Amino acid sequence: MTRILVIIGTPIADALNHALAESYAAAATTAGADVRTIDLARDPVPGTPTTRSELRMPRPDHPDDAPLPPAVAAYLDDVTWADHLVFFYPQWWGTYPAALKSFIDRVFLSGFAFRYRPTGRLWDRLLTGRTARIVMTMDSPRLWNRLVYRNASETSLARATLWYCGVRTVGVTRFGEVRHAGPGVREGWLRQMARLGSRDAAACVRRKAGVPALA
């Protein structure tokens, strides 16, 4: 069965991102996927690292390395389990909320998500084979986000984090000018998320079966 991990990266409970994530997850489940959800408005947000050892997996030959907190270990298990990761978050100050940044800092660890090679400048991408989708909401227009912010938040997440660790981003969805969007517009966004949930579930099945992607 296809395994999809939904990560809601806002500390505000019952926000628009929750409704979008729920629509996506329900449709993906109906399409046959097994879906888990991490909701950073309700689930533990890993604390900001205060030592270098908290940025890497504990090593057996380094007794001074900090052990993984139980919540962080559980999140690593979720990422290991998943075939496909979906990030939902609001754009704040041109990037994503600190809650999601803390999650990334403590979960996408050296030795888990990537590994530096002993010599040279190359590294191993330890999450290769997984795909991801990014869904972001913002009050600014999409044109402003592209021209002024240079799509900073989604580019950083897709390239500096996911690509670096071997995860291929298959799509970015941007919902702009949220505060001006009426109920009809928001209902359309929910329907769009349902379509993407169904599509991603089917695409994961095809990929695992070795079937080429549809044109």
TrEMBL record:
It is an enzyme of class 1 (oxidoreductase). GO terms for molecular function: NAD(P)H dehydrogenase (quinone) activity. Pfam families: Flavodoxin_2. Residues 3-179 form the Flavodoxin-like fold domain. SUPFAM superfamilies: Flavoproteins (SSF52218). Residues 53-63 have a biased composition (Basic and acidic residues). Keywords: Oxidoreductase. The keyword Ribosomal protein does not apply. Its EC number is 1.6.5.2. Residues 40-63 are annotated as: Disordered. It comes from the Bacteria. Belongs to the NAD(P)H dehydrogenase (quinone) family. This is NAD(P)H dehydrogenase (Quinone). It comes from Antiquaquibacter oligotrophicus. The lineage of its organism: Bacteria, Bacillati, Actinomycetota, Actinomycetes, Micrococcales.
